Amino acid sequence: MPSRNVGCIFSPAEGGRAASIRCDILSGLVPEPTRACELDWTGLGMTGARRARPVCAGDTAYSGSSPVLRYGRVWTRGPFRCVSKTTGLKCTSRAGHGFTLARSHWGVH
User: Fold this and answer.
1) Helix (H) or strand (E) holding 6
2) Strand extents, DSSP E, 12-103
């Protein structure tokens, strides 16, 4: 995203594994999830058929050299569709699951 605060990784379906997407936010999840995480709450992730969830990881999906999804633009790949807005990133799957990721809040649906 143009803010350079969110970065995502898409993994296509392969060898019986479902397609997945993970989006991390450098400023952190606000508020932090209440369950324990031994590493860092980096962002949100989901597969094409499963509900989105917070990601506890020691790495990041963010890369400063990745292409930027300009505000108002849509990215689609596999079962996912993501929309970049000044208010945050919203990603959904064909199965009807999704998440919203922004500097001030996050949510899954």
Assistant:
1) strand 6-11
2) 20-25, 40-47, 53-57, 74-77, 80-85, 88-93, 98-101
Residue 21 — very low, low, confident or very high, per pLDDT cuts 50/70/90?
A: very high
- Domain ranges for the chain: 6-108
> How many Cα atoms occupy the beta-carbon half-sphere of 44 within 13 Å?
29
CA dihedral angle for residue 73, residue 85, residue 18, residue 32, rounded to 10 degrees:
160
Q: What is the pTM of this model?
A: 0.95
Per-residue pLDDT tens for 28-77? 999 999 999 999 999 999 999 999 999 999 999 999 899 999 999 999 99
Q: Distance between CA 43 and CA 23 in Å, rounded?
A: 6
Query: Are 108 and 96 a contacting pair, CB within 8 Å?
Result: no
Contact 42, 55 (CB under 8 A): yes
CB proximity list for 31: less than 8 A, separation 6 or greater? none
